[in-house]
Every structure is written in structure tokens, then in C-alpha cells.
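Would you be willing to look carefully at the protein I have copied below?

:::
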Amino acid sequence: MNGTAGLPHILVRFYTVTSVRAARYSVAWALLFIAVLYTTAPAVATFARYNLIDSLNDQSIERVEQLDWVNKWESTGLLAFDDKNNDGRLQFTPEPQTNEVDIDPDIVFLSSPEVAQLAPWVTGLVAAGGLAAALSTASGLLLVISSSIAHDVYYRIINTKASESQRVAMGRVMVGLALVVATYLGINPPGFVAQVVAFAFGLAAASFIPVIVLGIFDRRTNREGRSQAWWLA
């Protein structure tokens, strides 16, 4: 909850509303859809896992290789089989020594519509939704990065006499640098996507939330940071 409330690309959306009332109204709708998302995600994960296990576990290799979705994902290298006991059947177990099905966690969600034998447009809808969410998040984060560096760091600290055009130029440079860093981390991810997302939520909860809460409820909190550190006392 704290991580969601402190995400930069969520906070920046409140700058686009016209009044405090509109901000509160948008928060109510955002909380509703966030609640729907977070409560349905475990159910989707459970159904996806069940479909994969039911389709592959204790099935003959010949039958599995006849499935269209298996051939498609196997060609990407994200799905592989190894009949370790040479019995002609696949065993899906949690132990690496006996597990004969190697599935990359990234394909579990995307392959679910095909595993469940749903219409092809459902797969396209899932991919489009994931892409739209990624682009929306990326645009919000790029806006936060560029505005924070150009306005709060460059203009407020480094060059207080910078013109508007200079600040805009600095913002564009920071967007370019952020894209380079994001591209590198996308090609060489530091961990599984769930680990990276959990780290982002934890970082947002540990950094932005204390500042937001103190800024709202503690009058001693100010720009210079002279608030008494009562939580360390």
C-alpha cells in the first residue's frame, strides 16, 4: 500500500488535476482500480500455474509436442523439456533434480490464454494491456526524472539563474540518459521482474512516504530539512 502510494509515476498524476476536489476524486477511482488489480493478480497467478501443471505434468512427450503453444514457446528458448528418467513422460516437480519441465517465469502470464485454449484475440489483448501499462509507467517515470533533475536539482541548486529554455534542454538530456540506462537494465536485468518490482515498491515506501506524511502532518518539516528527528529520539 505504501509502495503504491509513493510511486513517482502515481504521484505525478495529481499535478494534472484542476483542484483539490478533483485530486480526491481521482484518488478514489485510482484506489478502486488498484484494489481490483491487486486482488485479482493472485487468482490469475493461481489459475495460470494450474493450467501449466495440468497441461504438462505426467503427460507423454509426444502429446505435449503436438500442442501449438508448446511449439511456439519452445522455439523462443523460454520453455524446454528434459526426460531425465527416460520414461517418455514429463514430471513437473519443485525439485531441480527431478523436474523435467523448464519454464521461464516471464512466460507464465503471457502463455496462459494459449494454454487455456482461448481465442487468439485474448492473447493479443493481454499483450496489448501489458505493453500499454509498461508505456504508461515509463512515460510517468521519465517525466518525474526529467522534471526532478531539471527543476529541483539543476535550477534550484546548480544554476539558479537558468532560463526556461535551459531547464527544458536539461530535462531532454536527462530523458535521453534515463532511456539509455533503462535500455541497458532491460537487456541485462538485475533480477527477476517480480524482484525488481518489489524493490521499486520498497524503495518508494521507504523514501517518499515518510516525506509525504511528515510534510502533511508535521509543520516543522520544511525545505531545509530542519524538522526534529523525533523518530530517532
Q: What stands out?
A: Residues 227-233 have pLDDT under 50 and may be disordered. Residues 120-158 form the longest helix (39 residues). The CA atoms of residues 43 and 109 lie 12 Å apart. The beta strands are 79-81, 101-103.
